[in-house]
Amino acid sequence: MTVTNTPAAPAGTGTPPPDTRRVDAYEKVTGKARYSADRVPEGVAYATFATARIGKGRVVRIDTSAATAVPGVLLVETTFGPDELRDVGFVMAGGHAVQSLQPLRDDHVAYRGQPIALVVADDLVAATEAARLITAEYRPEPFAVRIDAEGADTLLQERAIPLPFLADIKVGDADAAFEASPVRIAGTYEHPAQHAVPMEPHAGVVRWDGGRLIVDDSTQNANAVRFGLAAQLGLDPADVEVSSPYIGGGFGNKNALYGYLGPIAVASRRLGRPVKMALPRSQTFHNGSFRPNSVHTVRLGADENGRLLAAIHEVDQQTSRHDLFPCQATEVTSRLYAVPAFRGRQRLVRTDVQTPGFMRAPWESPAAFAFESAMDELACATGRDPVELRLANDAAVDPVTGLPFSGRHLAECLRRGAARFGWGERDPEPGSMIAEDGSILGWGVAAGCYPGSIVPVVAHVSAAEDGTVTVAAGGHEMGQGIRSAIALLVARDLGVPVSKVIVQVGDTRLVPQHLTAGSWGTASALPAVRAAVDELREALGVTAPGDVDIPAAVRATGRPVVTAEATTLAPGQTPQVLKQLDGGFLAYAGPVYPEFVTFSWVAHFVEVRIEPTTRRVRVPRVVSVTDCGRVASPVTAASQVRGAVVMGIGAALREESDVDDRFGGFLNPTLEEYPVPVNADVHRLEVEFIDEPDLLFNPLGVKGVGEVGMVGVAAAIANAVHHATGRRIRRLPIRLENVL
Ligand code: MOS
């Protein structure tokens, strides 16, 4: 794999100085970083689930006798009482749980793969063997796993969830403007369900210390786990502590309390032993959330030059029977271009699955696949170059609200990307570019954007006589590099070595831990850390900017440790919102703020090569230019974009969670059958940043980068496939049979 690493400007400085590296790299590659399942407390017992083998129905009889007889089995339980495991609502409906359905509460099976029994044993082999021996008789019921299946129930989102930010976006009379447009494009695009399959599966270890519950969980939302478990088990939240210092990939699907934690906490209390559960990979496909299947109809009206006059984007997105996982696809498609008339319509389709959820750019990536494919169709229809077409439709202000964008350098992303890619060499005629080895070349472009959100963060900073500066902040490290971003900020501000900065995240014992998602982690945490460092300077009596001799300054105070704390909010938020934070609820704001609208922006340029006999589609080269404000941590930011592009390649060419009307559930819940891109699928990824601070958004000028990097990748690949073959593929993933 050739990977070009292009950190932020100033470019060409050669080897980055040590302080621009990933600060926890050593811990991670040497195995010193302890992930939740790495914890093996004294006397720990191992738990696993037996799961339902029907698409929907009731458990009529369940036989656990063979399981109980397995040597080493400590507990087999099929049902917990209503007072043992109380209801915890869905995180997107004001609750704390990844879905409202808590398994093991009654005989109801809502979907294939739902847990029907918990087994705890001295070791994992015994637990797994016992779970396998559990047999059940069911009374099956009809079910729907496809959004077009009989029994799937379609709801208009704005009526089903009457919240202002989920209302359909309407600007002008888009239908009339579309009908009156000289050039009209219309197409329906389908994005499959997908699973994020992070390297580390969902995993937790629980233990009791008297009446206190101590939890290590792989979660992006330690607060939701803390408050959710307290509610579920009838505990005072003060008696629940949750720690999630490292996550082996989250991508959004570790965003709330999972249904395995309550049962193992009860089991742990009954057994008087710590209990661990790591979901086997196949179970993550039915007990982890997933990117729902969605169908997008896009209509674009334009003049003969391709200037947009109208856009209509209608989406049907899958949800579960028991929860409404919202859709926000049109939030981005209404903002990409200066379209004078826009109509969005988002519907939710109830199917018999676990509740879907977040997976990197959960709505934005499918939405951009549809919309940016349609833009490519418009370029073809008007004979305009796809880059020029996008530049001609650039927006000066937010077309939805009329407010200014706090920062928008999309045109610069397109220009720089085109130059770096060599776009000028492109022959627009499909199939006209042939490589030396006979492969057909296709070059495609697409733009993307991702909303800029901010959450309240509490940061606590302390300086010690030995020169160490310890920062505890709200935020979780899931591989994206929040520790590096915080450590670099503190090191630069105080002039101390990065090695002297200790960053503690994901720990409810220190400060509140709001969900880290929506690419808001860094932009939320850094302003709080900066404010806390300013407070620390006050406390140390060294307010003049410049380097601080920490040991001397601490000594001068006569105290061994000097501490400071600060809390920051999103623009427009009032301290009232801290009640949400302190209760473990969501408290994010954006992308629309009182005086501006914030998005991160990206342009992707993709080369595909189609081998002439096998028609295998390869992606030898991607150039991605991102506007994420100021780049806070060059190494981890570039890595975020590369990872996002890799996921985009997976979305475009590999990944689909298959369903079958006869069986229910997902058919391919293993890494053999759910192919994610591997090294052989990923070639040259060139990443570049605009690196212009967005100072309206926050004092550090930092915007999100983790998700925007995926938005538009699948579209750019599909557009490149069209350029190579003349075929417009409107359903992902694009497979061999689509280009034969
Ligand atoms: Mo991200 S899908 O919001 O963790």
- Uncertain runs are 1-16
Top CATH class of the domain at 402-449 and 590-740: Alpha Beta
Largest sheet, strands/sense/barrel:
7 strands, mixed
What name is given to the CATH topology of the domain at 402-449 and 590-740? Aldehyde Oxidoreductase, domain 4
Radius of gyration over all CA atoms, rounded? 26 Å
Mean pLDDT: 95
Helix content: 10-25%
Number of helices: 18
CATH architecture of the domain at 402-449 and 590-740: 2-Layer Sandwich
Bound molecules: dioxothiomolybdenum(VI) ion
Fold and architecture overview:
The longest helix is centred in the last third of the chain and has 20 residues, at 521-540. Among the domains are: 2-33 and 453-582, 2-Layer Sandwich (Aldehyde Oxidoreductase, domain 4); 402-449 and 590-740, 2-Layer Sandwich (Aldehyde Oxidoreductase, domain 4). The chain is globular and about 75 Å long. It starts with a strand and ends in a 15-residue tail after the last helix. A 7-stranded mixed β-sheet has the order 4-6-2-14-11-12-13, with helices on both faces. Strands 8, 9, 10, 15, 16 and 17 form a 6-stranded mixed β-sheet that branches. The protein has 740 residues and is α+β, with helices and mostly antiparallel strands. Residues 220, 250-252, 358-360, 362, 517-518, 707 line the site of dioxothiomolybdenum(VI) ion.
